[in-house]
């Protein structure tokens, strides 16, 4: 399953942009579709659809304003936790950018960055996923990412430098002049790609107040966290819920809120993500109960009344009715048929 979430801390500067436009915070929280208390937690992940909804609102209200500049001015590298602390403790700007391109997936796994060390320049390319074709249409989101990259490089190095080249794959718009004034160069609009370049000396700019040894340790930790996250995120929500349910001694003991808590999401979020995958909690619980029933009967080690209890049924007759719905026959008849097939009857 393709990763479909991004870190909640990325919404913090976007909320700030919205507030500068006079958008009520309650409206932005409602647009995102998450409880504000959850968005304040640094470990919460939010579906990409929420990012699209919030950017659409920002552009509808302030599309003639330099939203990219407002976003850049609202971003502090350390606001994004581990990734930010890796950046501020790197030895130089080139290393910081290279590390960011590697571990950015901890924040946003669908947006890819690439650093190229050219003979006389350092180039950073932004590659948007085809699923996010809404972003170039809105113009400001990808523009904001590149302008924020320039602004963050200035913060990290303490140098008010300007890139030698910046390209946007969308047309010029009402706020383009203000964006160029902030960057200090004329941007190339309607380009074939999104990129920013600086001269080779920019890559060697030292990061102010960096603790190099700490940065190395944090980078190793970030790489390990990324590997672990990828192994977990590729599993669908259906699989994760079924795994939690199947691990219980007695099926039916966990309600949706219990499972949501174990998966570190709200019940509302869990139900929505299951709907996005075309399944329901009740349907998954029924599937787990069915699979366990077949396995218990196949093993032949437990009486039917005990199987009924372990599956969460009130009595054996309720188990028998459910089993007939699953298989078209009774538990006893199905067990006999299985024995005949195995030659053990």
From TrEMBL:
Superkingdom, according to UniProt? Bacteria
Question: Record keywords: Transcription regulation included?
Answer: yes
Q: Which InterPro entries match?
A: AraC-type_N (IPR032687), Homeodomain-like_sf (IPR009057), HTH_AraC (IPR018060)
Q: Which residues belong to any copy of the HTH araC/xylS-type domain?
A: 239-337
Sorted alphabetically, which Gene3D superfamilies does this protein's record hold? Homeodomain-like
- Pfam families for the chain: Arabinose_bd, HTH_18
**Keyword annotations for this protein?**
DNA-binding, Transcription, Transcription regulation
Q: What is this protein called?
A: AraC family transcriptional regulator
Give the source species: Corallococcus soli
- Taxonomic classification, please? Bacteria, Pseudomonadati, Myxococcota, Myxococcia, Myxococcales
């Amino acid at each position: 399953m393709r990763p479909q979430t991004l870190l909640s801390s990325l919404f913090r500067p976007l909320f700030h942009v919205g507030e500068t436009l006079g958008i009520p915070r309650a409206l932005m929280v409602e647009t995102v579709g998450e409880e504000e208390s959850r968005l304040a937690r640094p470990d919460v992940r939010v579906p990409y659809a929420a990012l699209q909804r919030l950017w659409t609102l920002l552009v509808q209200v302030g599309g003639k304003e330099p939203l990219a500049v407002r976003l850049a001015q609202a971003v502090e590298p350390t606001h994004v936790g581990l990734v930010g602390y890796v950046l501020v403790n790197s030895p130089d700007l080139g290393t910081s950018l290279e590390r960011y391109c590697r571990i950015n997936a901890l924040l946003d796994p669908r947006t890819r960055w690439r650093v190229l060390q050219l003979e006389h320049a350092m180039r950073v390319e932004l590659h948007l996923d085809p699923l996010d074709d809404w972003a170039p249409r809105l113009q400001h989101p990808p523009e904001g990412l590149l302008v924020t990259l320039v602004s963050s490089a200035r913060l990290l190095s303490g140098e008010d430098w300007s890139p030698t080249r910046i390209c946007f794959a969308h047309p010029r718009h009402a706020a383009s002049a203000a964006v160029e004034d902030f960057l200090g160069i004329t941007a190339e609009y309607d380009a074939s790609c999104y990129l920013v370049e600086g001269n080779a000396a920019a890559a060697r700019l030292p990061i102010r107040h960096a603790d190099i040894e700490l940065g190395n340790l944090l980078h190793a930790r970030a790489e390990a966290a990324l590997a672990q996250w990828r192994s977990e995120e590729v599993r669908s929500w259906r699989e994760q819920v079924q795994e939690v349910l199947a691990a219980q001694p007695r099926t039916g003991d966990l309600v949706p809120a219990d499972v949501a808590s174990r998966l570190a999401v709200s019940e509302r979020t869990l139900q929505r993500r299951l709907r996005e995958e075309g399944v329901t909690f009740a349907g998954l619980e029924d599937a787990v109960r069915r699979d366990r029933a077949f396995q218990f009967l196949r093993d032949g080690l437990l009486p039917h009344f005990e199987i009924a209890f372990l599956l969460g049924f009130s009595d054996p007759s309720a188990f028998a009715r459910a089993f007939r719905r699953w298989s078209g026959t009774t538990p006893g008849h199905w067990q006999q048929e299985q024995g005949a097939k195995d030659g053990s009857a």
